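User: I'm putting together a small comparison set for a docking exercise, and I want a reference complex before I start. The sequence is below, and the ligand is guanosine-5'-triphosphate. Could you produce the 3D structure with the ligand included, as structure tokens?
Assistant: Of course. I'll restate your input first, then give the structure tokens for the complex.
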Amino acid sequence: MRTEDLYKSGFVAILGRPNSGKSTLLNQLVGEKISIVSDKPQTTRHKILGILSQKQGQIIFLDTPGIHKPGHELNKRMMRTVYDSLEGVDLLLVLVDASTLFGSGDQYVVDFIRERELRTILLLNKIDVLRKDKLLPLISLYSQKFDFAEIVPISALKRDNLELLIQLIFKYLPEGPAFYPEDQFTDCHERFLVGELVREKVLLNTAEELPYSTTVLVARFEEKGELALIHCDIYVERDSQRKIIIGSQGMKLKNIGTEARTEMESLLGKKVYLELFVKVKPKWRDNPRFLDNMSIGFSTGARS
Ligand SMILES: Nc1nc2c(ncn2[C@@H]2O[C@H](COP(=O)(O)OP(=O)(O)OP(=O)(O)O)[C@@H](O)[C@H]2O)c(=O)[nH]1
Ligand SMILES: [Mg+2]
């Protein structure tokens, strides 16, 4: 039997700086919206699993928080999640935002992967917004820094080169069984995913420090036939932030609610009655019990 005829499977972690496009890539590879995406760094706080089942085999992707120097306890836990995600993986995908200049944050990522002894594919992402003449110098810069198994320019957003990437990943995966049923695309609970959708809509509707200071707890998730009753508490650190999220005459919160509800309805395939409350919890980012409650720092969002 030829090696390309074998059924292959394995775990593939997606790593990189915040905002490099990891969650966009996970969603595009799996073909489902699993991991939330925003233009604000440090959007992903958990390990998020996405499963791609094809005729050749099954790839289990792990989206991770962006690699950054941690300040708050929240960030330390996010980085712990990155380390935990590497355990037992067969392959690493390291994403860089090729549309920005190489800087100290990128060097930090290179040093991070140098310390691991894992086979790594480098993905130069966002080539849709990159001048063509910038690509070759970047490839040569990175190839001097680390012995990557492959270097592939992609656009996660436009799906450029993603089919090629999937074939390359299969090339490096071992023969093995399917770890999940073929129709399953994540192990995250719906309860976790709806909370993330609310957080995504808050991120997309706010700026500056708010995205970092916001978190969401799903207080109620009840399915009654064709209806889902969902109640989420949005937590911020200061009353001024609470006012920003609510907005003038409650308009911003209403908008956040409408956007989140629409996506929840397509996720759950039923009507959603959504209630949102905004609460103040000073310094929650350094509160271990509160972080435990949100399963931040545990190995998977599936726990929520
Ligand atoms: N132009 C362009 N934008 C992209 C591409 N991939 C991702 N983006 C944008 O980059 C921003 C960050 O994307 P995410 O997928 O949230 O990035 P991330 O690496 O998961 O970020 P963190 O979770 O914060 O670590 C979003 O605004 C995406 O739309 C791409 O290929 N091209
Ligand atoms: Mg992300």
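Residues 3-172 form a domain with the Rossmann fold fold (CATH 3.40.50.300). Strands lie at 8-16, 48-53, 57-63, 91-97, 120-125, 150-153, 215-224, 227-236, 271-280.
User: Thanks, that's exactly what I needed.
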